[in-house]
Amino acid sequence: MISDLEDSLEEILKRPLPGSASYSKMIPYPSHDAYSKVPEDHKEAAVLLVLFQRDSEWYLIYMKRTTRTAEDKHSGQISFPGGKYEPFDRNYEQCAIREAVEELGISQDSIQIKGALSPIYVFVSRFVVYPYVAVLSSLPEYEIQVSEVDQVYEVPLSYILDENNIAKKDLTIRNQTLKDVPYIDIEGENLWGATAMITSEFVSVIQSATQYEK
């Protein structure tokens, strides 16, 4: 399944998405309520799950957000490239592409959108986030936006798909300690929260497609 991912990904993402049902493994709070009550004055953003293949291995790109921006409620955290939907963006997909190109410096011509995942409300920052999935037609070359990005991580998809890599621990965020938060270790950093929940849906989509084809 993973070997022919590029050929099948677009079709996979056309199937019904699991949405919030897939978040349970990575949700950092006891209930889904905080993520389901979307206020009318919410903001909107888009992110891009960027996949590429090197030596027959698929990788998923994450980045660490800089701590230089004090007003960023997700500063210092692992995330997907992405950002706020702007009035000049044609649509959410174009917003996700624009932000990925700005933050990572990857070639826009190499980005091939394969489909979308479910929108998710991030109550901490009051954003509804629209995730898109893309495959790069060539190996990425980075020119990171240092005002937004501290580091880029190329994580094997096989590592993300392995549920044995999910663990729990207490996390202190903005002077508040969250108990037993599900996370995945990414080179010593914690992949958790909304980014982990989006990742969880992507994993569910891939796994369900594998089961479907057996």
CATH topology of the domain at 5-23 and 35-156: Nucleoside Triphosphate Pyrophosphohydrolase
- Which consecutive residue ranges, at least 5 long each, have pLDDT under 50? none
* Number of H/I helices: 5
Helix content: 10-25%
Largest sheet: 8 strands, mixed
Shape: globular
Sheet-strand content, in percent, reads 35-45%
Distance between the termini: 10 Å
Question: Which CATH-level-2 architecture of the domain at 5-23 and 35-156?
Answer: Alpha-Beta Complex
On the 0 to 100 scale, the average pLDDT is 90
State the total count of DSSP E strands.
11
User: What's the order of the H and E elements?
Assistant: HHEEEEHEEEEHEEEH
What is the fourth-level CATH superfamily of the domain at 5-23 and 35-156?
Answer: Nucleoside Triphosphate Pyrophosphohydrolase
CATH class of the domain at 5-23 and 35-156: Alpha Beta
Radius of gyration: 16 Å
Structural class by sheet pairing and helices: alpha+beta
